Amino acid sequence: MTSSDPRARDRRLAGRATVALVLLIAGLTLYPIQTPGSVPGTDKLHHLVAFAALALPLSWAWPRHALLVIVAAALYGGVIELVQPHVGRFGELSDWYADSIGAALGGALGAMLGAWRGRRLTREA
Length: 125
Hints:
mainly alpha, 0% strand
């Protein structure tokens, strides 16, 4: 793959985005908070969206490995829930469920978009 290869560029971008999201999620979920969120139920939506965003880039760049990306993202969510009680937060099984569902949705969407992009690039080549 050369530097002008769109797939290589996409993979570099996906890797950088994923690292940024891993760090952002860690910061937001492991930083001690004084007051929980004010709107009930939105916490689970935040988990779902964050982990969908986490799984999407790598699944888009490597659609054939989407299942591995989904599992890794779900495991990351589980580790966060296990660590949270040690940093003044509450680890919740329901948060991990939301993380896992989000990872599955983001991974599936990323794989579909990545497969479509791959077919398009192949036709253009």
